């Protein structure tokens, strides 16, 4: 048999997918590890050095920086130049990106980094000319302040120069490097705060339209500017006799108003006026979204009312939230102890803004004066404008807006004797509108003098130099004195009060001076031993000057006085409890009336009766887990709509059309709730819509509309009204502007969306975007027992342990002991850094 030889077999390598998968994941893990290590190294390189020694070019002598368990620095130097140099350096360590963002926001330079969607904002800021104002501010600085501003800028620049290769992560993500700091940039930070705390001139224009539509009587009702709840800080509380007489007068007024006799009505008898002080941290003066923003609280009680026998002073300034939070805590001290001050500072600006030194303490709320006027200018075909002296050519300023990855945008700013033409900032406006603003006269910096003040007279002299923003300042000292002083440059007008646009061609409404500082409301050691302000009316009856055409509604100040006048002896813990108080007298008032109206309605729906029952059992506290506040607020909002819609028209759906169309949503007024209270209390016929027989029917209809599951307006009520929790309806949202947009970092980059107790009208004044920016109580019996906490934390670096470590305290309503004496500071020391020349 023949056989065929065969060649030896060679086995082929077999395909092993499992092994390849293992290799793939091993490589992936290796690359991930390398990426994590690289990212971790990148992040750590931007963290500030907190311990040891550090050579810093520009110092003349060593500076000690001690930080506590929350990263707050105590900076101690031998001279002022080194002290403010170190303040600039240390602040830049923690907040450089925020500082750069704030100066860009103020100057109108955001589009250069973020792109063309920010051109609208930048155009506004260029027209308003905030950098021009900052330049003037630096020119006007006293020599001492100019030296301190320059030292601060050198400190910031020493940090920037030494860390160009180790900048905070935000700069790397956005692929740019900050330019060097200047005294002008510090002034710009201060000027931006003035803008944030100024009114929106749009409100005078809205009021003008409403006046044309409704006439003077109804407009006067709407633009009420005083209330029986008002508690001007310089006026002692009425005696019981006077209160009874006042109540009898109110009852007589109610009876007189039944015939709707017009001018004698207690509603129309209140003074009309406009504009409202806007407080968000990033406020747009003209691009107004219609939302009302919040004010602040401050109060001081003498030793008669405290357990220690010495004053307690509290302050929580309500501003727009940002991440990191607005304020930066710092303690500035000379080795000689001749200068020793602690409190909150503005990142980018030298000095302590609010706090205490060895002897005195102070706190702010915004006064909210009328300091921006709109003038209608007349131009001819040659481009000249008319004045009382004839036609004059305007000045012009050319602004170039840099835009990321796009061509530059040029803006020609036209300037009249009153200020810049702002017409293009007002949608739908065609007239040539000029803005006059006290800011354009320049500002001074009072804060070195404030930080150095040792007694009431020093304090008043220092604050006589605060031109803007005008503030209500409460005072206390270690000797047991308390006081209050209104501050700021507030115009005196030839006629009018700035509440409406005026003719710019004559001098009939020109500013003829400013209210003298010694004529501004002030009080020292009042017999009551209690002083409080919360942005509501501070001018007593019969006061000679017009300070504001729009005060904040008095709900917070009335509640603060009610608690402080309870006869208790208070501790610092009691002050914090008041700062976090969530009782709403406003909404309790309306809920009671809604319940009564539903109870007496002919055919209330099952849902309305259920809503009434929920409100009936409510104690007035705006608790996040409660449904009653949601129902009460929605019904109040619907009541306002039902009253205004027949007279001002329905609101268009399109947001752009809403800006130019007169509707019920055009009415925006800080005392709008006082108008609503007046209407419900006095029930004038002129406000009752035609299709309702009486006000109880109207109030019942508001509840029905609020709980409708298919509403025409705004939010939809759930099927189960008990599930309509206030915290879901009225949450808080704080998000980092960069990291909040990156999914992998978002959860660590800020609190995000949170349920929250409190409302715009509680002492704990909160909204989705605003709230207490700090909570401070100074104990003048023992400064080391004072308390202070920020919103989120001291650091701006996402990976710092001090980025979010104060959030829990802010959110849950507790605080931290705030050491001041050298021994207490040393006891609380967590880090110590020596800055050497």
Could you describe the 3D structure shown?
- The chain is of the alpha+beta class and 837 residues long.
- The chain is 35% helix and 17% strand.
- It is built from 25 helices and 29 strands.
- Helix 5 packs across helix 8.
- The protein is globular and about 80 Å long.
- The N and C termini lie far apart (104 Å).
Task: Chart the SSEs and their pairings.
Blueprint: H1 17-46, E1 52-55, E2 63-67, E3 73-77, H2 80-107, H3 111-114, H4 119-128, H5 130-140, H6 143-162, H7 169-174, H8 183-196, H9 202-214, H10 216-222, H11 240-257, E4 297-301, E5 312-316, E6 318-320, E7 328-334, E8 340-345, E9 354-357, E10 360-366, E11 372-377, E12 385-387, E13 390-392, E14 395-403, E15 406-415, E16 432-437, H12 447-452, H13 456-463, E17 471-477, E18 482-486, E19 491-493, E20 502-503, E21 511-514, E22 522-524, E23 530-533, H14 555-564, H15 572-579, H16 585-599, H17 606-616, H18 628-648, H19 655-660, H20 672-682, H21 695-706, H22 726-729, E24 732-734, H23 743-746, E25 752-754, E26 770-772, E27 774-779, E28 787-790, H24 807-812, H25 822-827, E29 831-836
Parallel strand pairs: 1-29, 3-7, 11-20
Antiparallel strand pairs: 2-3, 2-29, 4-5, 4-23, 5-27, 6-26, 7-8, 8-9, 9-10, 10-17, 11-16, 12-13, 14-15, 17-18, 18-22, 19-21, 24-25, 27-28
Helix pairs in contact: 2-6, 2-8, 5-8, 9-10, 16-17, 16-18, 16-21, 18-21
